[in-house]
Design a protein that fits this description.
490 residues, alpha/beta, Aspartate Aminotransferase, domain 1, Aspartate Aminotransferase, domain 2, 3 domains, seven-stranded mixed β-sheet, four-stranded antiparallel β-sheet, 17 strands, globular, binds pyridoxal-5'-phosphate
């Protein structure tokens, strides 16, 4: 038995009688223009939903709303607006994690955005060779640039780096053995774990060495007639510290090549430029792995590279050709939008001196702490005023504090970037403080442009490293506690 008929049976006759029928609502003049704007079916659905929510409210004993024309049309408009609001929306990322996977990672550079818009608008030579007028390959759009920047002989692009790793193993190691150190059996997040990836790619994973120490002799001993590939995975989101040993890439390459095997390196993030001159911790470069003898190197497009979601595979011509020919390549290929954004992003790397100014990811990562601090001082008053009325019955203190941001997306997990934040704490510690803080964080998330901070040690931390649109942020603050949250009524 469904809940609704049973519930209706308990509905007091007076309230039930006060709710008009769907048909009667649709005939009201205020509703007619909504139908004209949004279509009859959509508005009819909204009317049904609204009456249903009112009926349920009446059952809970809530006073019945005035179901007359103007009040009903207003409630209906609000309901329709909430349903029409895009689900994917811009947010303010004040979490302190610059490359936040759940918030879409890298923000694209302006030339990349323009290139995507152009590619969306009409036909492009995605797989068309303009010189010969015949069918081309989408990889050629970025291959030359990638080779120029990394020193590779060839390059190919897929949907993301997880796809790049899967494809590499499937193409080079399927039905045979792939060697990997036990210290590198990484889980990236979600279901992406090295042992499962190997299995999905149809390869048999052979673990070499131990969790903390793996030696060249372990690899030598593991290489046999069924070995197809030697693999190294950069431990991006964790560190093995203490009594450790790993085989250098040059040695792994020599070992593999002596046995006639390819050597693949998954860098995860990878960075096309040395970050040290920018005052950032070092992250391995694909060009270094290639110079050390790697035949195939995989890395992400939207981590430190600062481009669109993509998986980039660079390396020796013969191995890349084999990877490109695998049927999975077709299934994992990147769209024209991605190729457009990637080409424009990579082009910025031709002028490394200008990179920090032009590439948002690098600009945010290298933002000086004093600049972030000054911004925090500047916004402290507005935040103090906004949070004052945001949660009924709660008072908050706001302070400017030095904090640490992180790069995110598994890059350099323990290296922190000195930053500054507006830190909000409940004025009265103790019982209820946690709930007040959670309510404040929720109110910020309910703004038309949601503001996402991080709750840490009894405080809501708004790290301003990634805040560039201060005016937009102020505009959202002004809506806080002023009925500005746009929660749907159902
Ligand atoms: C992030 C990462 C991946 C996955 O890359 P995506 O672009 O997120 O698919 C694979 N390997 C390593 C080592 C990583 O850090």
């Amino acid at each position: 038995m469904s809940a609704i008929p049973r519930a209706s049976a308990r509905l007091p006759a007076a309230d039930a009688g006060r709710l008009p029928s769907v048909d009667r609502v649709l005939l009201q003049p205020e509703v007619a223009h909504l139908i004209e704007r949004h279509g009859r079916r959509f508005v009819t659905d909204a009317v049904r939903g609204l009456l249903q929510s009112w009926r349920e409210a009446a059952l809970r004993g809530a006073p019945a709303p005035a179901a007359d024309g103007p009040a009903l049309a207003q409630a209906l408009s609000a309901r329709i607006a909430a349903r029409l609001a895009p689900r994917l929306r811009p947010v303010f990322n004040l979490t302190g994690t610059v490359l936040h996977t759940n918030l879409g990672r890298a923000a694209l550079a302006e030339p990349a955005i323009l290139a995507v818009a152009q590619a969306m608008r009409g036909p492009v030579n995605l797989e068309f060779d303009l010189a010969s007028g015949t069918r081309g390959d989408r990889d050629t759009l970025v291959e030359e640039l990638l080779c120029e920047l990394t020193g590779a002989e060839a390059a190919t692009v897929v949907n993301n780096n997880a796809a790049a790793v899967l494809l590499t193993i499937a193409a080079l190691g399927a039905r045979r053995e792939v060697l990997i150190s036990r210290g590198e059996l990484v889980e990236i997040g979600g279901a992406f774990r090295m042992p499962e990836v190997m299995a999905s790619a149809g390869a048999r994973m052979v673990e070499v060495g131990t969790t903390n120490r793996t030696h060249a002799a372990d690899f030598s001993a593991a290489i046999g007639p069924k070995t197809a590939l030697v693999m190294k995975v950069h431990a991006s989101n964790y560190v093995v510290q203490g009594f450790t040993a790993a085989v250098p890439e040059t040695e792994l390459a020599e070992l593999a090549h002596a046995a006639g095997l390819p050597f693949a390196v998954d860098l995860g993030s990878g960075s096309l430029v040395d970050l040290a001159p920018h005052g950032l911790p070092r992250e391995p470069l694909p060009q270094e792995a290639l110079r050390a003898g790697a035949d195939v190197v995989t890395f992400s497009g939207d981590k430190l590279l600062g481009g669109p979601q993509a998986g980039i595979i660079v390396g020796r011509r013969d191995w890349i050709a084999k990877i490109r020919k695998h049927p999975l390549k077709r299934a994992l290929r990147a769209s024209k939008l991605v190729m457009a954004a990637l080409e424009a992003t990579l082009a910025l790397y031709r002028h490394p001196e200008q990179l920090a100014a032009r590439l948002p990811t690098l600009r945010l990562l290298t933002r000086p702490q004093r600049e972030i601090h000054a911004l925090a001082e500047d916004l402290a008053g507005a935040v103090t005023a906004a949070v004052a009325g945001a949660v009924p019955g709660a008072a908050f203190c706001v302070g400017v504090e030095a904090v640490s941001s992180q790069i995110g997306s598994g890059s350099l997990p323990i290296d922190m970037l000195p930053s500054a934040a507006l830190v909000v704490r409940p004025a009265r510690a103790g019982r209820g403080a946690g709930r007040q803080l959670a309510a404040l964080a929720a109110a910020l998330r309910a703004l038309p442009v949601p503001v996402i901070g991080r709750v840490s040690e009894g405080a809501l931390v708004l790290d301003l490293r990634t805040l560039e649109d201060a005016a937009g942020f102020r505009a959202q603050l002004a809506l806080l506690g002023a009925g500005g949250s746009d929660k749907a009524d159902a």
